[in-house]
Specification:
Elements (H helix, E strand, L loop, with lengths): L14 H13 L3 E6 L5 E6 L1 E7 L2 E6 L4 E3 L3 E4 L2 E2 L5
Antiparallel strand pairs: 1-2, 1-6, 3-4, 4-5, 6-7
Length: 86
């Protein structure tokens, strides 16, 4: 039922993607974010990035509407590939 990339093992995101996410954070620019939720379903949202942070060795993005998404579950940001899909 769950996919491999929704497992508990975290897969780090490339540095250039982290820089791109920080640009969105500092500009409060609206973005189309496609991510895989905890149930393994692909979700699309249009939101702003309110925070980027690490917790227990994993990185997260906190969205304007209150969703917290693990960075390696984010698939695309405005059409740009963020995480590698296996």
């Amino acid at each position: 039922m769950t996919r491999e990339n929704t497992s508990n093992s975290y897969h780090p995101v490339r540095c250039e993607i982290q820089s791109l996410l920080r640009e969105y954070l500092t500009s409060s620019r609206l973005a189309e974010i496609v991510y895989r939720d905890d149930a393994g379903q692909i979700q699309t949202t249009h939101d702003v990035i309110r925070d980027l942070f690490s917790r227990a060795g994993q990185e997260f993005v906190f969205l304007g509407r209150g969703h917290m998404v693990r960075l390696d579950h984010v698939l695309t940001l405005d059409g740009r590939t963020v995480a590698y899909t296996n």
